[in-house]
């Protein structure tokens, strides 16, 4: 049976949030933007069969439309969103998508005043922008402070305040529905999910705890209708705080970077590496001369801790690394060939144009019909020893070594895992392979050890590395 207090809270919720709301409402602002949009392009006249009875009609109709388009002048369009003051001097936080492409940005306050705002900096990856009202206000603005989003639990009460559908300051109440949500909006997704009503126009507004501290920035919703259905997402305050500090100091983000490509550790890969369970981030490849390479990380390592923080899965590592200060020396705990090791590296700075640190997809090669070569089929994969002719046929880089995949059985596990003709099997369970015989011997040894699957390091012809586990026949 639940304790009486918990049972009452579950049925009643908070008695009132009016006192807290009165203290924080004035710090929430409506963000209005405007931009100049060029007239739409002329609509091309459709092609009709010569002599069609509608040919003359359509030519006249589209000619008029094109003339009207040429006569149109650029027009101004506006949009609305939300934001909140974090500094009495006039710094305001909102979403980047609220002010993206805007020519002018204004902050509209609860007392009816309206101040122009300049964009201090923006971060597209977690959709945050920092604004500064200009000129500096005559009197200090009402500001709110950030709280600790890490201590939030599913079921904790929260308040969302914003500008839904342009209605002005509106408060809704709900609970934290889930944590660490990945909605595929970027490489650092770890959203808070809430059922507090969030609608169009709430973007950029604050999500408060019951003490009136900002624990999230309302950013996205899932809604077939465009209105709230109780599934809203907010950037956690602990994710936003270091980014906002960087935008304020530098006008740009300065994320940590170590120079690796990573993969998810699946149950099959975990078994192949003798891990107790699927956990951590598997290093697929290491950038030459990057921080990871200088620190001794190698392809095949499984990172389970970074700078004292547990790496639960692949998605956790980029988030932890990005939040780590540039030039900081950190401990990295890895599982290498079944043994735990601690390495040290100095975190570099991410070039914001760098691709997301995930494993590359391997496109299937479609070579011409090959001349006869000696092959062996294992695990549904027909393979052969490297020759100059095969290197040329599959356009494999000169420095790459391994067993050449000639073909893969349709419907096999290997085909499902993306292994394709032209790939190289570089290692089997972290032992180098140069011939099909090497692969066969490694599989026999693993089978004798009672292993159910083998971990293959696979390279494409360009040298992109990834790992995959295949069942041992």
Describe it for me?
The chain is α+β, with helices and mostly antiparallel strands. The protein is built from eleven helices and 27 strands. It has helices at 4-12, 18-24, 55-71, 96-99, 237-250, 267-272, 291-295, 316-323, 388-393, 413-416, 436-448; strands at residues 28-37, 75-87, 91-94, 104-108, 114-123, 128-133, 157-162, 170-181, 191-194, 206-208, 214-221, 232-236, 256-257, 260-264, 281-286, 302-306, 309-310, 329-336, 339-346, 348-349, 376-378, 381-384, 403-408, 424-428, 431-432, 453-459, 465-471. Strands 21, 22, 23, 24, 25, 26 and 27 form a seven-stranded antiparallel β-sheet that branches. The two termini are 51 Å apart.
What brief labels describe this structure?
473 residues; disordered N terminus; alpha+beta; 27 strands; elongated; 6-stranded antiparallel beta barrel
Note the topology.
Elements: H1 4-12, H2 18-24, E1 28-37, H3 55-71, E2 75-87, E3 91-94, H4 96-99, E4 104-108, E5 114-123, E6 128-133, E7 157-162, E8 170-181, E9 191-194, E10 206-208, E11 214-221, E12 232-236, H5 237-250, E13 256-257, E14 260-264, H6 267-272, E15 281-286, H7 291-295, E16 302-306, E17 309-310, H8 316-323, E18 329-336, E19 339-346, E20 348-349, E21 376-378, E22 381-384, H9 388-393, E23 403-408, H10 413-416, E24 424-428, E25 431-432, H11 436-448, E26 453-459, E27 465-471
Antiparallel strand pairs: 1-2, 1-4, 2-3, 3-6, 4-5, 5-6, 7-8, 7-10, 8-9, 9-12, 10-11, 11-12, 13-20, 14-15, 15-16, 16-17, 16-18, 18-19, 21-22, 22-23, 23-24, 24-25, 24-26, 26-27
